[in-house]
């Protein structure tokens, strides 16, 4: 899976400057229903690891030069989101933790763009109870713990499938995932994201009842990589 980009040291300063400019721009990916704004850092029940299907995102955001250039990404890390067992999630928590230079370097090695990295820290990382660098390393470990099914490692042809078939493919590639640990999100009849529920120690677990797939029972399209 082409899931992360390693930025060279000479590019980090320039990328951080760009990211500061973009940080106030809301991330355009689908998040689903929002929970209560704010919350107490570290007060949550589990994580939702969210993998975005880059070809779908790039159909509507072709000018995103970081993600939608010539790389041909398949699944990329969208985020690691604290969740409440009862439903919903905290976001934009008030915290004294800040993005310093070391944290920026860690984040830029995990996310495909500085804009996404800054947004994910501000919206979700601030609620983790972790400092920024530790949060980014946790997101990297969570990403590394999931094996992408071979058929989705950067397919050159579009296909159609159901959410059940995609969930089965992920569970076949990851036998450690329990029943009800994987959810699928769609956007305009196309695959948008796969979401995997993890305990706070990043071990797999079943999702809370409020975390549901959003593709219905019909088949959806899976655009090919660029």
Describe the structure.
The chain is of the alpha+beta class. The chain has one domain: Ribonuclease T2-like (Ribonuclease Rh, Chain A). Helix content is 28%, strand content 17%. It contains six helices and six strands, in the order H-E-H-E-H-H-H-E-H-E-E-E. It has helices spanning 9-22, 54-60, 101-108, 114-123, 132-144, 163-173, and strands at 46-53, 75-83, 159-161, 182-187, 190-198, 220-222. The strands form two sheets. A four-stranded antiparallel β-sheet has the order 2-1-5-4. Strand 4 and strand 5 (190-198) form a beta hairpin. The radius of gyration is 17 Å and the shape is globular. The chain starts with 8 loop residues before the first helix and ends with a strand. Residues 1-35 have low confidence and may be disordered.
User: What's the CATH topology label?
Assistant: Ribonuclease Rh, Chain A
Question: What's the overall average pLDDT, rounded?
Answer: 85
Number of domains: 1
Task: Write the CATH homologous superfamily.
Answer: Ribonuclease T2-like
* Sequence of strands across the biggest β-sheet: 2-1-5-4
Gap between N and C termini: 14 Å
Strand tally: 6
* Outline type: globular
Computed over alpha carbons, the radius of gyration is 17 Å
Low-confidence stretches: 1-35
User: Which bin fits the share of residues in helices?
Assistant: 25-40%
CATH hierarchy: architecture: Alpha-Beta Complex
- The structural class is alpha+beta
Order of helices and strands: HEHEHHHEHEEE
